[in-house]
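Input.
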Amino acid sequence: MSETLRPEDHPLPQRILHWSNLICFAFLIFTGFMIRFPFQGMPMNLMRNLHFVFMFIFIVGGIARGFISIFGREHDFKTLVLTKEDWKNFIPQVLYYLFIRKEEPHFVKYNSMQKLAYIALQVLGVCQVITGFILYRPQTLQKFGYMLGGLETVRTLHYLIMWIFIFIIVVHLYLVFTAAMEQFWFMLFGKIKKSHEH
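Output.
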């Protein structure tokens, strides 16, 4: 189990960036599908422009979150580092989320699965930005495209990474609404919604 949730665990800047990322993911995934599978009459230029706009918002948000994590008043980068205890608790945490284990392993702010997901999101985010920029400026970044196997390979990688993001988001939402509703209200409003409240 975690320690008691406190408003200072997720200060306002972190919550704003969290929801900003969610909005960016929604628009990037939607416009990404429209670009990948266009249909007659679809405003392709609008879809591309929206995709690029939210791509830049996502990049700025990622940089801001990294800066806050390292240099912010409530810097929390150390809480995202996987420890031996996290690896030890990983399987028990999975079993807890699958409703096989009754008691949740102890953690402070993020459990082992959350840490692993956040680290994976950072790595995948960087890969998605790189492949996205190559597709955005194929002539300028032609050499980088060739290094990754050509534009079609880059396009496929970009598409596959999107599906990994979708999988992580779906799992995240499942866990939020089945095992962490208190944290949902916490992230949304910055305060705990008591179980007796309606």
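The mean pLDDT is 86.
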